[in-house]
C-alpha cells in the first residue's frame, strides 16, 4: 500500500461476511484458492463476493505457506482492518477481522507478510506505541501462539523512525524490504533493504536509482530468493493511472536492473498496488481500485531481459 494509504479517500462502507463461503466453492471445497477456477495470463477478480466485494474496499492477499489461512485488508468504518479466513474441513470460513486487528478501532492495520518459518506475521499499523500516538505507520509483528496469536509488538530497530514505514516484504534469509522516507531518499518515498542478522534488522540500505526515482515508490514485493522484485511507482511518464506496477530483476551482483512497466494487461487508469506472489510461486496477486486480482505468475517471466 505504501504512500498510497495516506492518499486514498475511501468512502466504502463496512462489509462483514455473515455466512460461510462454502456455497461459492462449488468447484472444490478443499481448494486452496477458495474453489476459484485458476486464472491464465489475464487478471481476474479474486473470490468475488467473498474477498473482493462491491460494498467495501479490499487490498492485500497473503496465504500461509500451508494454505490453511488467507489474509487480506478491508475497510471497516473507513479504517483498514486485517481479515482472516481459515480452511476447514467444510471449506474456507467466512472472513472475519483478525484478532490482533480488533483492539484499536480508530487506528489502521494493513500490509501483512509472513516470516520464512510461517510463525511470525509482519504488518503495518498506526496504533500507539507504549501509549504514545504515532505520526504514521510503523512495522509491527505478531507471533503464532498455539492455534492463536500472541500480543502484537512493534519492531525495535532502525526500520521504524519518525517517517512512516510501509509494506514489509520478507525474503528467505529473513531480511526485510520496505518503503519509507529517509535522508538518502530520491523521491517522496523509496524502497530499502534491511539485512536480518542475529535476531535483528540492520540499518536499511536504499535500493538505488534502478528501482527508486524522484517520483516516489512503494509496495515492494521481492521473490524469496531475491531474483526479482515488483513494486509501485508513482507518476512516471509511462504510467497509465498515476500508481502503476513495475518489475526489476537481480543483476547478479547484488543490484537490480532498471525497472520495467508491467503493461496494460496489469496496470490500469485506476490505482494498481499491493503485489504478492503465492507461496508456491504459481499465482501473482495484486490490488486494483478496491478489489483483489490474480493471474498466472508466468507473466513475470515475460518481462525478464
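Sequence proposed for the structure above (305 residues):
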Amino acid at each position: 500500500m505504501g504512500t498510497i494509504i495516506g492518499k486514498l479517500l475511501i468512502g466504502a462502507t463496512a462489509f462483514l461476511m455473515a455466512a460461510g463461503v462454502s456455497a461459492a466453492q462449488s468447484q472444490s471445497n478443499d481448494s486452496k484458492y477458495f474453489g476459484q477456477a485458476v486464472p491464465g495470463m489475464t487478471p481476474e477478480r479474486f473470490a468475488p463476493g467473498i474477498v473482493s466485494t462491491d460494498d467495501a474496499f479490499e487490498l492485500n492477499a497473503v496465504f500461509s505457506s500451508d494454505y490453511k489461512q488467507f489474509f487480506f485488508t478491508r475497510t471497516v468504518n473507513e479504517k483498514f482492518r486485517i481479515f482472516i479466513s481459515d480452511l476447514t474441513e467444510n471449506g474456507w470460513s467466512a472472513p472475519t477481522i483478525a484478532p490482533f486487528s480488533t483492539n484499536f478501532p480508530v487506528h489502521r492495520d494493513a500490509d501483512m507478510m509472513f516470516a520464512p518459518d510461517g510463525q511470525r506475521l509482519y504488518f503495518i499499523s498506526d496504533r500507539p506505541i507504549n501509549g504514545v500516538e504515532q505520526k504514521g505507520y510503523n512495522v509491527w509483528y505478531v507471533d503464532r501462539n498455539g492455534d492463536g496469536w500472541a500480543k502484537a509488538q512493534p519492531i525495535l530497530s532502525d526500520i521504524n523512525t519518525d517517517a512512516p514505514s510501509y509494506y514489509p516484504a520478507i525474503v528467505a534469509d529473513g531480511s526485510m524490504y520496505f518503503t519509507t522516507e529517509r535522508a538518502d531518499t530520491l523521491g517522496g518515498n523509496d524502497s530499502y533493504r534491511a539485512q536480518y542478522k542475529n535476531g535483528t534488522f540492520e540499518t536499511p540500505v536504499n535500493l538505488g536509482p534502478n528501482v527508486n526515482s524522484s517520483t516516489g515508490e512503494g509496495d515492494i514485493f521481492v521473490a524469496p530468493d531475491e531474483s526479482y522484485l515488483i513494486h509501485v511507482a508513482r507518476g512516471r511518464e509511462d504510467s497509465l493511472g498515476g500508481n502503476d506496477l513495475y518489475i526489476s530483476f537481480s543483476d547478479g551482483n547484488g543490484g537490480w536492473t532498471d525497472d520495467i512497466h508491467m503493461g496494460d494487461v496489469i496496470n490500469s487508469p485506476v490505482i494498481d498496488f499491493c503485489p504478492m506472489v503465492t507461496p508456491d510461486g504459481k499465482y501473482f496477486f495484486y490490488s486494483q481500485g478496491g478489489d483483489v486480482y490474480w493471474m498466472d505468475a508466468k507473466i513475470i517471466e515475460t518481462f525478464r531481459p
